[in-house]
Structure formats: C-alpha cells, structure tokens
C-alpha cells in the first residue's frame, strides 16, 4: 500500500486548449487512461462519448458566446424556453452573453429545434466542431430570414467583465486528489459537473497503479500514534482482501471491500459563483476536517486570483 497527502490542482491551463482536448483530458480520469492521450486522440474520444451518450463528459467543455440579434423577438423566445444549465445575461436590447457546456447546447438544440438562437449557436459551434452535433437537427445557416450573429468570447475577455457577470460566466475546473469520504460530500453540490476515478473499472493490481492501492493519509491521526497504526493495519488488510477477490472477481465486485480512505481523483467544474458558495460552506468551522484540508488552501488561491469575487 501507499499513503499520500490530499491535494488540488486548478486546471486553468486547460482553458487554453481546444474543446476536444479539454474534454478528453477530463474524461480519461474516470478510467485513469491518460496514458492513451496523443496528438490525435481527442476527436475520436469525443465522437465515442457522443455516440455512447456519455453526456457528463461533454459537460467538461464550456463555451461563452455573444449573440447579436436584429430584433428582440428571438431574445424573448430564448428566455421563454428557460434553457437548462446555461448562464445568460442581456448586455443590450439586441445582445446576449451566454455560457454553457457542449452538453447544454446540444440538449437545447434537441429540445427546442425551432428556436432561432439555439440553431444559431449550434450552427456556429458545429462549423468548427461538427462531431459534437452529428445527427442533430441543424438547419442550414441561411435558412432563416433574420440572421443572428454569434461570436466566441475567450477566457481573458470573460475575466475583464464586471465581477458579478464574470462570476457567472467564468468556469473553472479543479482536480482534487482526496479520499472518497470527501468526494461523497463534494458531489452533493448541484450546479457543478463532476468526473471521478472509477473503482468499477480501475484494477489496482495493474502495473500502472504500482500493483498497490493508494490511500489518503487521515487528517485525524498523527503518524506514529496508536490510532494511526490501527488505521494503517486496517488499510493493509483491505488491500490484501481486495487483491484476493480480484483473482476470481471483476474490479466492480472486488471494490465492495474498499474503504473511504482510498485515494481518488475527481474533477469539479463550476462557475466562480458556485465556487464562492462551495468555499463558504466547506471552509467553515463546521465543515468536515478532511474537506477543510483541501478547501482552505483552494480558497486562498482563488482569493489571490480573483480578489473582486472571493
């Protein structure tokens, strides 16, 4: 067995990558198959996710667009739809600022095929990323008499917006390396997207895992104490039983003996407004100590980066 401390990484470098690259990087955490990433693996990976209906993976690609309409009728129609999982602000009578994941834009198109703005955004994205919208009811760009203009806003531009608007439209992914008790609590936050290392598919007896299980050092017990020794012996026993079950069972069956102390990796993706809410709850004195162990330093780092919001 191996014991490590918990940690977090803000994945802001991913924002500079293309949508398929971002989605593949996050998606492969589930199977711990990052070793299969190559210069041309992203688009085939994305196509497979779309074909198999793995929509949660498509939540890891978020886009901000500016939509300009010749009249306010399409804007009224758009808000009447109440599209799911999108952040939308009206910048002027004719202009909208809309942020959402590829999944959200796909589902808006599927549910509201006749909406002009849904068609315009999907058409704009499909011209660069057709694999996201293959098989969906896209109209020809010139099929509507009132042309709606769509343009992309990059992350740097989003960060120049006023603090309240930036907090809604700036999405940030954070990868946590923590125990499973922490992730059980983290995934309770609703307006987030999550992808997590899967014990169902990961076989920890494999070479790429070092033929051992990795556990997170408990914040509750001092190393060298009697309590820590009891915990360590329990983890060693669980590892032994898990490997024994693997000789006759699948990983999804053998995992039933694994404890909360197991190391796991999870990517949490949310806008800064939701991160503000998460940190207000998870850094309080009443929060679970293992959660505070990673959330306290994350709060300090986000305050340093976005002092106008945190």
TrEMBL record:
This is FAD-dependent thymidylate synthase. GO terms for molecular function: flavin adenine dinucleotide binding; NADPH binding; thymidylate synthase (FAD) activity; thymidylate synthase activity. SUPFAM superfamilies: Thymidylate synthase-complementing protein Thy1 (SSF69796). GO terms for biological process: dTMP biosynthetic process. PANTHER family: FLAVIN-DEPENDENT THYMIDYLATE SYNTHASE. InterPro entries: Thymidylate_synthase_ThyX (IPR003669), Thymidylate_synthase_ThyX_sf (IPR036098).
